[in-house]
Design brief:
mainly alpha; 4 helices
Amino acid sequence: MAKCDEGYLCDVCGQDVPELTDSDMYLRYVVGMLDPEVLHTTPERHIRCNPVLAQYIVAPDFAPVVVEGPFDKRTLDPAYVAEQEGLVTRGWRRLNEVAKSEIPIIQYPLSEVLNEIARRSAHV
């Protein structure tokens, strides 16, 4: 099978990442953690295969993820945790919205991320 026919395989578990809503790469892109210029070279993984990020999704339709160890959000500064929960949860909700639409990939990110991309582009 040609590489392009395989789809996106998770670099952690090796399984297919069949849905946009399961994509850690696109979640990181939507919240501004991943520059659009490197999407095509960034390894893919399931959101749950990146528990350090997944633990910040707080939504009734997303089963909580618990991380043990130094990156466990329960051991981090509460203000930082609240900020990350807000950002990543909004990003996950946005990912679910764009998965149901036909908007161009460049419009996937949260509005503040799009504004930052535009600002950086204007200064190049």
